[in-house]
Automatic annotation (TrEMBL):
Database matches in Pfam families: RHH_8
Origin: domain of life: Bacteria
Name by which UniProt lists this protein: CopG family transcriptional regulator
InterPro entries named in the record: Arc_rbn_hlx_hlx (IPR013321), RHH_8 (IPR041088), Ribbon_hlx_hlx (IPR010985)
One GO process term, biological-process aspect: regulation of DNA-templated transcription
Length: 137
């Protein structure tokens, strides 16, 4: 019998759920039916992107002011071992996706990560997330 390691799905998106009133939903369906959008999701993504574009300057200024990494930040076991060897600790601040490799033991994460602030998504093993739960904001 062979054993295969299950790896988390690497996706470039996260699922969100929203509640809309019947009138808003009906208007969305009408625009989809009339061919303005391929489906409800297409309209909602477009609306969100338009709002983000409208507020792009505020986002850029806030990212700079708060010293956030914009985009993706990935930490491997080797990265964290090097930080531990240097006697340093991380204060992770990301707007986007922060990920910690699945082979990072909880003890190494605890020894090297002082705090995590993520506006977006954090991907890490359940053990690492549980160990760092008091340090995640």
């Amino acid at each position: 019998m062979s054993v295969h390691e299950l790896k988390p799905k690497n996706t470039d998106s996260e699922k969100i759920t929203i509640n809309l009133g019947p009138v808003d939903l009906g208007q969305i369906d009408l625009l989809v039916q009339e061919g303005f959008y391929a489906n409800r999701t297409d309209l909602i993504r477009t609306a969100i992107r338009n709002q983000l574009a409208q507020h792009a300057d505020v986002v850029k200024q806030t990212v700079a002011r708060k010293s956030l990494v914009l985009g993706m930040q990935h930490y491997t076991r080797a990265d964290l071992e090097a930080i531990q060897a240097a006697g340093q600790r991380l204060q992770i601040q990301v707007l986007g996706l922060a990920s910690i490799a699945t082979d990072v033991p909880a003890e190494l994460a605890l020894a090297t990560i002082e705090s995590i602030t993520v506006l977006g998504a954090l991907h890490a093993s359940a053990a690492v997330k549980a160990a760092l739960s008091g340090r995640i904001r």
